[in-house]
Structures are given as structure tokens and as C-alpha cells.
Amino acid sequence: MTILAQLITSFIASSGFGILFSAPKRALIQCGFVGMSGWMLYYFLTPAVMNNVPATIFAAMLVSVLSYFCARLFKVPIIIFNISGIIPLVPGGLAYNAMRHFVENDYTTAIELSVEVALLAGGIAIGLMFSEVIRQVVVKLSVHK
Q1: What number is the average pLDDT over the span 58-86?
Q2: Quick one: 4 exposed, middle or buried, by C-beta within 10 A (0-12, 13-18, 19+)?
Q3: Which H helix or E strand runs over 71?
Q4: The 3-state secondary structure of 100-145, one letter per residue
């Protein structure tokens, strides 16, 4: 898939999930932008630079940072942007394939895929959490100065 197609589909997926998540209409474009940005970072990091899990962590961190700024700028809860932004990173297709291999009694492949799904999902959680921890430390350090 071309880079342009990656941009468009990740934007539509994030904005579309924003609609399902009942995000305010004025925030849907930003939801799409946050998700698209996270996916683009993941897309550019995975092929040559690093493995999927660290790339997912960095992409989730970017989603969290952008979500924070969008939430402050547009006065919308940060969770609206976080949830919509991580949607392109969620390993849904991989989880489907893992379950399919379980049903087909191909347990070795199923377990390998399930472990990868768990690592990627954990990477999303770690990226969101780590970014928030760094932000809070920076805020506390700047307040004490």
C-alpha cells in the first residue's frame, strides 16, 4: 500500500472511530490527525529501523503527546484523542489470524501470533503510560523551578 493510502486509511479509521466513540464533531479532524500521525511513525520505523514492538511503543507515545496538546487546545477530554489515535495501532488482523490458527488446530502458529498480539497491545499501553509519566515529571520539575 502506498504512503498516501496509508495516510488516508489511518486518518479515516481514527476519525471513524471518533464518531463511534461519540467524539465532538469539532474534534473529529484532530482525532484523525492524531491516529494518522501515530500510524505514520509506526510505518516509517518498522521496515528498516526497528521491530514492531518498539515502533508501537514510540507511536503510542506520539499519540499520547499529540492527544495532550489537542485536548488542551480544543478543550476536549484527552481520552477522546487517545482512544481514536491508537486504533490504527491495534493488532486486530493479527489477533484474528491467531484465533483462526487455534480453530484450525495449528497451535504453534497460533501461540506465536498470540504472543505477538500481547506484546503489541502491551506496547500500546506502555507507550501511552510512559508518555504521560514523562509529561507529569516535566510539569513537576518546571513548577519547582
Answers
A1: 94
A2: exposed
A3: helix 52-74
A4: HHHHCCCHHHHHHHHHHHHHHHHHHHHHHHHHHHHHHHHHHHHHHC
Burial category of 54 from C-beta neighbours within 10 Å (exposed 0-12, middle 13-18, buried 19 and up): middle
Distance, in Å, from the CA atom of 98 to the CA atom of 120, rounded to the nearest integer, reads: 13
Q: How does pLDDT run across 45-57, given as a tens digit for each residue? A: 987 778 899 999 9
- Grid cell of 25 as nine digits: 464533531
Question: How many C-beta atoms lie closer than 10 Å to residue 141's C-beta?
Answer: 9
Provide the whole-model pTM. 0.89
- The C-alpha angle with vertex 76 and arms to 74 and 79, in degrees rounded to 5, equals 130
Question: Nine-digit cell at 81?
Answer: 484523542
Secondary structure letter of residue 35 according to DSSP = H
